[in-house]
Amino acid sequence: MATTSFSKKNLGLETIDPGVKPTPLTGESTFLKKPRLTSAKSKKREIPEGLWTKCPKCATMIYDKELDENLKVCQHCGHHFPIGARERIHSLVETCSFEEMDADMLSVDVLEFNAVTSYIAKLEAYRKSTGAKDAVITGIGRVGPHRVGLGVMDFTFLGGSMGSVVGEKVARMVEAATDKGLPVVMVSTSGGARMYEGMFSLMQMAKTSGALAYHARNKLPYISVLTHPTTAGVMASYASLGDLILAEPGAMIGFAGPRVIKDTTQTELPPGFQTAEFLLEHGLIDAIVPRKEMKERLCRFLDYLTVGQRQLAALG
Ligand SMILES: [Zn+2]
Questions:
Q1: Does 69 map to a domain?
Q2: Ligand 1 centroid vs 70 CA: distance in angstroms?
Q3: 307 alpha carbon to ligand 1 midpoint, in Å?
Q4: Residues 22 and 164 both lie in one domain
Q5: Ligand 1 center from residue 230 Cα (angstroms)
Q6: Is position 66 within any domain?
Q7: CA of residue 87 to ligand 1 center, whole Å
Q8: Which residues pair with 99 in a beta bridge?
Q9: Residue 290 C-alpha to ligand 1 middle, in angstroms?
Q10: What is the DSSP letter of 267?
Q11: Domain coverage including residue 120
Q12: Given Cys at both, which of 130, 142, 208, 296 links 97, Cβ 3.0 to 4.6 Å?
């Protein structure tokens, strides 16, 4: 863990080593000198683990509280750290407007998959470590004045893999939005289909795509937001079907991994391959939107995409 390698320098504490610091110039300093130094020393050594995070891009040590307040974006270089599904929902919808759907839906072990550990044991471990039931949270919420069907994936639950529950929850949310005449916003992050569910996970690609096709047939907009990383089966289904496709800066987006592509095609991959910036340049992505601007930009895109609906409503 990064916290074990803290040096004084990283923590910015190199100038306040109490062992070598001159006596402070206060009246009480003479007889209080010893206890004061002892307490300062122990404070410095007892920095709790997990209070600071090192930015992998600019190597700055960031105070976790600051990182949380900044929606898990490094304030020094703009690096986007992963963010949990609930935190992201909180950052996108109006307070208390989100009604979660299918919150208790649980995966079952259809194939009785058993490798190093069983699928059931894996699910239980992830439920315990993340506090989530599966890799996506879906529901209806309000972004600015717009009610939308919203789905947010969480990479920390089994790599955001798409099993039957993820597919079913996404499909049901899209169908509910279609019924209610609402736009859909889907925030994806995924390593792909869930291997523990074999073919059943692959079938989710067709199911979710089908639900989105009906949604589109009803002339309702769908905005797909790609976050780091969005790959494989999810990218090959609902994540790439948006009327608008947005991405967070620096997100890795693709189908197969770069090494597999390089080995298969036997060609050198261009620099920046499979990054949001590369895909924006090549037309797959419509805009790269920093996390802090996401809500406002979504709101503006939704204004634009629902203008026809509002005009029709005004005509009665
Ligand atoms: Zn940084």
A1: no
A2: 12
A3: 39
A4: no
A5: 21
A6: no
A7: 20
A8: 140
A9: 14
A10: S
A11: 83-315
A12: 142
For the entire predicted model, the pTM comes to 0.82
Please indicate, yes or no, whether residues 100 and 249 belong to a single structural domain of this protein.
yes
**Ligand 1 is a single-atom ion; what residues have CB below 5 A from it?**
55, 57-58, 74, 76-77, 79
Q: How far is the CA of 71 from the centre of ligand 1 (A)?
A: 13
Q: Compute the distance from residue 78 Cα to the ligand 1 centre, in Å.
A: 6
Q: How close is the Cα of 61 to the center of ligand 1, in Å? A: 8
For residue 2, the CA-to-ligand 1 centroid distance in Å is 15
Inside any domain, residue 71: no
Residues 36 and 125 in one domain: no
> CA angle at residue 178 from 177 to 182, to 5 degrees?
50
The pair phi, psi for residue 141, each rounded to 5°, is: -145, 180
Q: Indicate which CATH number applies to the domain containing 298.
A: 3.90.226.10
Tell me the pLDDT tens digit for each residue of 227-279.
999 999 999 999 999 999 999 999 999 988 888 888 999 988 888 889 999 99
Do residues 217 and 254 lie in contact, with contact meaning Cβ atoms separated by under 8 Å? no
In the chain, how many domains are there? Answer: 2
Q: Around 230, how many Cα atoms within 13 Å sit in the side-chain half-sphere?
A: 29
Centre of ligand 1 to C-alpha 163, Å, is 34
Q: 7 and 139, same structural domain?
A: no
**102 part of a folded domain:** yes
Ligand 1 geometric centre to CA of 226 (Å): 21
Query: What is the phi-psi region of residue 198: left when phi exceeds 0, alpha when psi lies from -120 to 50, beta otherwise?
Result: left
The token duo for 55 is: 């930015």
- pLDDT one-digit tens code per residue, 159-192: 999 999 999 999 999 999 999 999 999 999 999 9
